[in-house]
């Protein structure tokens, strides 16, 4: 905890009070500023400001492909085709584009402004609420904003005239639907089918062509489109317009055009996609046919029908050939063994007939041979070898052996030829079997290319059907959740904000004026300025002297200024408690700040309290004390210093009507007053006066110009520094603070002179 210094609190309160007082005294400026600004705000709201109503709507931007089994955007994106973006930020950019707003302006024929003449300002109206509207394409619209006045006569005709002396439009009576030329441009006045009221006594309506691009930019700038939430596709649209119905129509038309343009763009994209797919299908048809021809050619060139079945046939043929070769080799081996048997064994033994001999002729010959051989063996047992029967049998056996050997050679030659052919066929089959992997790989490559092209062909056919279906049944991706609605009360201008702003501005201007004035003011304007630049105590203040008299304080005078001197008399006693205050030096920084006026009246105030007081005119350079009291100059201080024959009693001049008040004049103006102020006789004079007076008040020269006042330092008890409001400079108070801080003059106190009446200090004028 700490203890707050009460002097600091009082100082802060005083500073705040001074700050407020410096502005409160200019209250009339604040009153005038507030009055003028509030009046300007009232006139602006009444005659200049146009009430603006807020029109709001909510729409849902949905993705029609979302939820379907196939994602068209993704699939067509894979093909390099661009689908409409459903990014919500992109849609906001599209809606707020000036392109859409220009189309809205054209759709609603807002390239013409309509108004009714008012007493102070013209009143804008919407063409749907009047009997007609002007129709003109952008190409034929008059380029100049020539104001026209149209007055309907009846449901068929109207009167037209120009508000200027221009000859572009010929004034006169026209029929609704007539083409009116303005130079090379033209327009029509069309009867409004929405207008059902009577055409008689319709107020003349002013019309003026406007630049539709500028209007579109203006409305686009006012249009606000925001996402209702960060995860959804709901958009909030808001627009400000002076005419609620027009604003609702603009917002409604904008949403409808956006939906139409979205469908139109989707249809254009679908048509373009179908065209691209058709072109691609034509190319794929040719490519597929070419691949199929390649397959057929390759199969023909390689004798292939189906690689798997052909390979099986080849393997089967190879196996069959192997078995045949084995069989042929067996037959050949059997024949070779029979031939070898016949050649080695002669005619004595039988030829083996149990061998697998497939040739019936050979088998028959062998059977005959064996039969004859058995017959001979039987005959030889009983008959000699030269027996004709034996000889005949030998010849027969020899012939049969020859026939068998001949038959063996023929059969073996046939088998060798057959074996050779089978081997050749086997070699060809093996070659085909060896070519199967290569053929299979090549055919797979061709088939893969064929399959890819067929799949792409089917895929494109599917996409074409999807795009054709979307083209046949177009569905907008925009749905109005909340139709456009206008508020019941205008949102702009905000009267409360404008009046509050006017009030603040009305206070700010005078405040700025006073603040700048105070900042540029280098003169003391209040006691706060004194307290800011010095810590010297304040003896009091003196209000402005309206009586133009030099001696204000006298008996029975209760005026404000007299009371202020009495207050300073009390303050002097309070500030000099336990200190001497007999000799009081009065000085200032410059001439004209009221030293002499203070000296006269403060001395009179002390004298009226019963004190014996003497006032000394020690401003030897420009003495004014006796002159201000209307007293004649006599022997003065200069005489006393220069001639020792004079005593203090010789210098005294009695002030009429003041029993206890005497004054001493300065005497002749010396040539060297600065040197004279250092004379020892000055100390002697003050010591003599101390013996007879309670207070000695010295009116000295300005301390900011000359150093005369510092000569009294050994002889004075206290110092009063006079500062004049709106006259003394702030830099002079800094000099005062230097003197006080360094104690160059004893017990210095400050008096603020010539203050304004009704000040926060002391009394003001009382009436």
Automatic annotation (TrEMBL):
One Gene Ontology molecular-function label: non-membrane spanning protein tyrosine kinase activity
Family affiliation: Belongs to the CpsD/CapB family.
TM annotation in the entry: 27-45, 498-516
Domain Tyrosine-protein kinase G-rich: 442-517
All copies of domain Polysaccharide chain length determinant N-terminal, residue ranges: 16-108
Taxonomic superkingdom: Bacteria
Annotated catalysed reactions: L-tyrosyl-[protein] + ATP = O-phospho-L-tyrosyl-[protein] + ADP + H(+)
Protein name listed in UniProt: non-specific protein-tyrosine kinase
Species the sequence originates in: Maribacter litoralis
Keywords: ATP-binding, Cell inner membrane, Cell membrane, Coiled coil, Kinase, Membrane, Nucleotide-binding, Transferase, Transmembrane, Transmembrane helix, Tyrosine-protein kinase
Gene3D superfamilies per UniProt: P-loop containing nucleotide triphosphate hydrolases (3.40.50.300)
